[in-house]
Amino acid sequence: xKIVVCVKQVPDSAATVVAENGQVSWGDAPLVINPWDEYAVxxxxxxxxxxxGTVTVVSxxxxxxxxALKHALAMGCNDAILISDPALEAVDTQGTAQVLAAAIxxxxxxxxxxxxxxxxxxxxxxxxxxxxxxxGWPALTLAATIDVEGDTVKVERSIEEGxxxxxxxxxxxxxxxxDYGEPRYPSxxxxxxxxxxxxxxxxxxxxxxxxxxxxxxxPQIINPPKKDVTCxxxxxxxxxxxxEALVDKILAEKVL
Length: 256
Ligand SMILES: Cc1cc2nc3c(=O)[nH]c(=O)nc-3n(C[C@H](O)[C@H](O)[C@H](O)COP(=O)(O)OP(=O)(O)OC[C@H]3O[C@@H](n4cnc5c(N)ncnc54)[C@H](O)[C@@H]3O)c2cc1C
Hints:
Largest sheet: 9 strands, mixed
Distance between the termini: 56 Å
Strand order of the largest sheet: 11-10-9-12-8-1-6-7-13
CATH topology: Rossmann fold
CATH architecture: 3-Layer(aba) Sandwich
CATH superfamily: HUPs
Helix content: 25-40%
Structural class: alpha/beta
CATH class: Alpha Beta
Number of domains: 1
Low-confidence stretches: none
Bound molecules: flavin-adenine dinucleotide
Strand content: 25-35%
């Protein structure tokens, strides 16, 4: 079983992201592996252990994205590949999908490609299905369970209405949700192995593709308007009085 897992490097969820001179900036906040992608790595490793496979972790980004790859290696992935090219500075999700699909094709004979449900910075949540589209593979998204039997896979999707069971033939693309189960922590041995790992860097030329043209452009990046928040403490002689005063205010503000 040949498995690929795609992980993205993102600013730490505690980061303050601002627009400066039309560019996105997160100051000196640390960069981390996208939290949703840890569930994808966990699912890839569990599937590898159940079906005697290998897991290759792939990321598209700058040199610093190697830290996200090393985190996945320390969790137990077999090898890692960074896709990096100056021409990939401002690609959209469609472009990201084309690049990841080209990498999956170059790795060759891949049976399963795992993704997180979304990236906490771009938050589009569509790169997995767009990658499946480019590959011509089925996409089984929001997976909470994954059962492989021969060349068929059954997935329980975690959707608002509850669970939905779907199945498809491999190869296929999967996106993972938290219901799949807690990701393992990188082991000490894993961290040591990852810190020594040689991570090859593939360019667009190595993938044999041109720089994808953006179909969704970000003509302008601006900060959201500052919300003026005032806080008023409602006082009263008793909880009943406070509650009544609060209701009066809520009604007066036409909130209800
Ligand atoms: C400087 C800059 C300029 C940009 N300009 C544009 C623009 O002009 N137009 C536009 O539409 N978007 C633009 N983007 C956003 C960029 O297109 C998205 O961040 C990227 O395509 C992925 O989308 P997403 O983050 O919403 O991921 P999602 O679709 O939410 O990701 C879902 C899953 O896909 C996988 N994945 C996503 N990205 C990667 C990656 N890089 N490597 C490996 N796996 C990945 C992960 O498994 C992730 O969990 C820009 C981003 C930056 C940083």
